[in-house]
Design brief:
This protein is mainly α. It has helices spanning 2-30, 48-58, 60-78, 86-108, 112-146, 155-193; strands spanning 33-34, 43-44. Strand 1 and strand 2 (43-44) form a beta hairpin. The longest helix has 39 residues, at 155-193. The mean pLDDT is 91.
Length: 194
């Protein structure tokens, strides 16, 4: 009976934590800004950091849920130019492509160097895969729905370096937090896996 109560308490704690981290991610998503040399539709925000924290503590599904909820909240609050959440889907995919490689590598090498390597891999995975997705799906969707000019020739000179810079910025900010939170994250992830 006591074990069932503890299981229910821990599930509630996970759900509440995912909700809180999703809310923080949503607020961070609102604080987006462009980088001057790039097109103004490419915006930097730090909303993937709470999703990464969720993944490290509660597992990859929690990180994906935070990415999903923040984008749903943002779509409900701000809408989309197209009426279809193309930008939100792109943000969701970019977030997953950043946090999942980072999570899996850090789970293998639980050190600060391991986290640095994991963040580099997450950044490169996000940058390369988002370039591919933009070229074949995302930019053609904007062209088809909004009748934008074909921007696929902007993928290599614009979108790829933008995503690398965005990943580096997120990694830098995350490492500042991680140096203070590493023991706490490891403690809770150890409890989760026990």
């Amino acid at each position: 009976m006591k074990k069932v109560k503890n299981t229910k308490k821990s599930k509630v704690r996970v759900y509440v934590s995912i909700g809180m981290l999703s809310s923080i991610a949503y607020l961070l998503m609102l604080l987006n800004f462009p980088l001057p040399p790039f097109q103004n539709f490419l915006l930097v925000d730090f909303s993937d950091i709470p999703a990464l924290i969720a993944a490290l503590i509660f597992g990859p599904i929690a990180g994906i849920l935070v990415e999903f909820f923040k984008n749903v909240l943002n779509y409900i609050a701000t809408g989309s130019q197209t009426g279809i959440p193309i930008g939100h889907i792109a943000n969701f995919l970019a977030g997953i492509l950043f946090i999942l490689p980072t999570y899996y590598v850090y789970n293998k090498i639980k050190t600060r160097k391991g986290m640095t390597f994991a963040l580099i891999l997450g950044t490169m995975t996000m940058a390369v895969m988002m370039s591919v997705l933009n070229y074949f799906f995302i930019l053609p969707a904007y062209t088809a729905i909004l009748h934008y000019p074909d921007l696929r020739n902007y993928v290599v000179p614009g979108i790829l370096p933008f995503n690398i810079l965005k990943g580096v910025a997120m990694s830098f900010v995350f490492m500042l937090l991680f140096t203070r939170m590493q023991a706490w994250i490891n403690k809770f992830s150890t409890v989760k896996s026990a």
